[in-house]
Batch of 3 targets.
Target 1
Amino acid sequence: MTSPGHKAEPAAPQLDQARWHTSSFSNGGEQCVQVAHLPGGHTAIRDSKAPTHGHLRYTARTWTAFCNTTHQDPPGSQPSA
């Protein structure tokens, strides 16, 4: 129940049916990050070695900003000015 003037948060997309994909930057399987694209444009990431330990969920806008930044400044590079 919400008070007048406040909107309830939308229900979070369920992960039961999520299709997890291993990152191509996983260093041959030693340091794996898995990504699942969820309904509503959300994205979830988790550690493939500990999939039951939870995940991080991002909105489409936040995930796009993250991807744009990492493509622009790959890990190990100097950030662009």
Target 2
Amino acid sequence: MPPKYGAIYPQEWDTAADAPAGYVTMWSEFFGVCNLRLPLTVFVAKVLEWYKLHISQLSPFGMIRVRNFECTFRALGIEPTVGDFRRFYQLSVSMGFYSFRQRDDTPKLMLPPKGMTNWKTKFFYIKAAAITAKLQFRNVADSIITENISVPRADTVHWFPNLRIIEWFKLDNTQLRVLRMMLGRMSRKAWPVVREKSGGKCPFSLCGFLLPCFCH
């Protein structure tokens, strides 16, 4: 974690609610299984803002679906949008934490995540300024509107014929730097484009046939 983010470990008896003034709580699994990195991508920031969620209110089970959706769509050459995300997922809440469940009659983009046990005990704090999104705490007592946007089908979205599952796996830091889908709001000069392999060398590939290329 770069020093500018001011990451600090909690004290022995601290809880996730004990972030110091000017800091926010981050779940460690965000940066493990979920493949999240800072700065946040524009898409992740827009998801948090649309649902009026503070990042600490979103469980890793919710974050992994956000990140999987973004990476899958980018790998398929489709621009990810909150509107299309809503076609697949419904916001849900349990035990005070938010996640996203698969909507009925929608194609599955990923298998249910495993291995994220005891995630509530694994957290740290970073400076709030590191989160480039307009965060607000959602009241768990507020009702959640049931999504009524049409589910993805060939007659509702033009990209449906190209949709396919891309296996999700944890990337190491080198792969994440190469893949670098971090479309941070602090800099929009580099926009990732996914192109089909044409024989050239590339240090990392998705599904063996899709390669990330970053254009300025």
Target 3
Amino acid sequence: MALPRTPSHQEQTASAAQLPRPAPPSHVEPPCPFDAWASTYDSSLLQYLLYRPVHQAVLQHAHQHQPNPARILDVGCGTGHLLRSAAQTYPHADLAGIDPSTEMLGRAAQVMPAAAIWFARARVEALPFRDATFDLVLSTLALRHWHDARKGLTEISRVTTRTGVVVIADVLQPPPRQHKPRRWTPQWPRSARHRDQMPVPAGVHHAVTVAGLEPDHLELIHLTMPMTTTTLIVARRRSAVR
């Protein structure tokens, strides 16, 4: 079923998309603090020092673990930069992005070509999609802003297909000094790639597991920003890895 066309500030519909019709929101969301950043977000220096390097790493791992997804969701899509890159990596996939910021979504809809990506205003804790909708779910530098990480991860697990892949990256608390990987170097994207060498902060790892996801790849990415380490998690539905 094709998505319905709605005002561009909240949703942009891809005429060729085959995503199921989303559920209507259960309540009206208050204004989002990120609305004020929309006009300058894409020109921020952080785009080049943090956001885009992380986007590149996420797409690299996404393609490695899920090379041919039919449907992709970006949770916390902002102005849509990651989805625009994903459209080039996955030219045949249906793409959707959700974000709590109306202004960010409005900017995303303006930048994207008509009928290319579907955007909706929503929070991760209440994703407006049916179960098992997406083969690939991405989220970059958004997890720390979620109201309830465990609930958000549970929702992500719910909308991911049985063989789907979830890739999440964010700047989380650094691991204890004694756990720092020996092969970890200050050159992005070089980093150790073994789960036992780089523990994700305990709360996040627990939330991922409780949500029904099984991490099968963890990586620390040292960026050009001083003292900034990004944790990247690739996970699958637990039923798919048993």
